């Protein structure tokens, strides 16, 4: 009845599919690819142009984002010298972005900025204020040094910036002692960095 399995298969699949499977005719051989002449120039491939995305925050001198309300606080012990560094945007200190010159002559900016827990008996030493401007943003780095009579009795360092300067909201803090390293996030409700 059916002369070949191919015809039987075509009938079983159905009439609508006849054009798709090529039933009843032999496939045409594919044309060989055209050869490209050696003297024909090859088109240059050009990468698409990607539009630049706008910066959300200007980097500070340390490469961090300039975020009002935030800051970085470090306390380091070297022998009997304790060094405290606070880095933050000028806005945290209640100043405008263009007020960098005001701080260069200010001598009271670090007074009362930190207090110590325990009986280390630390006395203030050098104070260094450095301001910087990156783009439209200005920041400040304040470095204070203290000489401590009994550094082993130091139990914590309290950052009073939250009460002195209401622009501070959160401060990433780190303590590096002789045998101890402690990190934390300080806030107005939790302004003390433990040293143990």
> Can you give the helix content as a percent range?
10-25%
Radius of gyration: 36 Å
Q: What's the total count of β strands?
A: 9
Query: Uncertain segments of ≥5 residues (pLDDT<50)?
Result: 1-25, 47-64
In brief:
This protein is mostly beta strands. It has a domain at 70-194. It has 4 helices and 9 strands, in the order H-H-E-E-H-E-E-E-E-H-E-E-E.
Description:
The chain has 196 residues and is mostly beta strands. The protein has a domain at 70-194. The protein contains 4 helices and 9 strands, in the order H-H-E-E-H-E-E-E-E-H-E-E-E. The strands form 2 sheets. It has a 6-stranded mixed β-sheet with strand order 4-5-2-1-7-8. A 3-stranded antiparallel β-sheet has the order 3-6-9, with no helix packed on it. Strand 1 and strand 2 form a beta hairpin. Mean pLDDT is 74; it is low at 1-25 and 47-64.
Secondary structure: elements and pairs:
Elements: H1 5-13, H2 18-21, E1 70-78, E2 81-89, H3 100-105, E3 114-118, E4 122-134, E5 137-148, E6 154-159, H4 161-164, E7 170-176, E8 181-187, E9 192-194
Parallel strand pairs: 1-7
Antiparallel strand pairs: 1-2, 2-5, 3-6, 4-5, 6-9, 7-8
List the main descriptive attributes of the protein structure presented here:
196 residues, mainly beta, six-stranded mixed β-sheet, three-stranded antiparallel β-sheet, 4 helices, 9 strands, disordered N terminus
């Amino acid at each position: 009845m059916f002369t070949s399995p191919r015809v039987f298969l075509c009938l079983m699949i159905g009439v609508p599919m006849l054009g798709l499977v090529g039933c009843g005719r032999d496939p045409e051989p594919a044309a060989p690819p055209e050869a490209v002449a050696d003297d024909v120039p090859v088109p240059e491939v050009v990468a698409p142009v990607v539009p630049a995305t706008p910066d959300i925050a200007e980097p500070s001198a340390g490469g961090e984002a300039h975020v009002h309300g935030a800051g970085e606080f470090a306390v380091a012990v070297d022998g009997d010298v304790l060094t405290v560094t606070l880095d933050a945007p000028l806005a945290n200190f209640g100043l405008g972005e263009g007020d960098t010159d005001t701080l260069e002559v200010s001598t009271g900016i670090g007074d009362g900025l930190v207090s110590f827990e325990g009986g280390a008996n630390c006395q203030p030493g050098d104070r260094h204020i450095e301001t910087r401007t990156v783009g439209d943003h200005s920041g400040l780095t304040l470095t204070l040094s203290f000489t401590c009579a009994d550094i082993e009795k130091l139990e914590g360092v309290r950052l009073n910036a939250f009460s002195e300067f209401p622009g501070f909201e959160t401060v990433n803090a780190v303590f590096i002692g002789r045998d101890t390293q402690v990190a934390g996030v300080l806030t107005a409700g939790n302004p003390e960095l433990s040293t143990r």
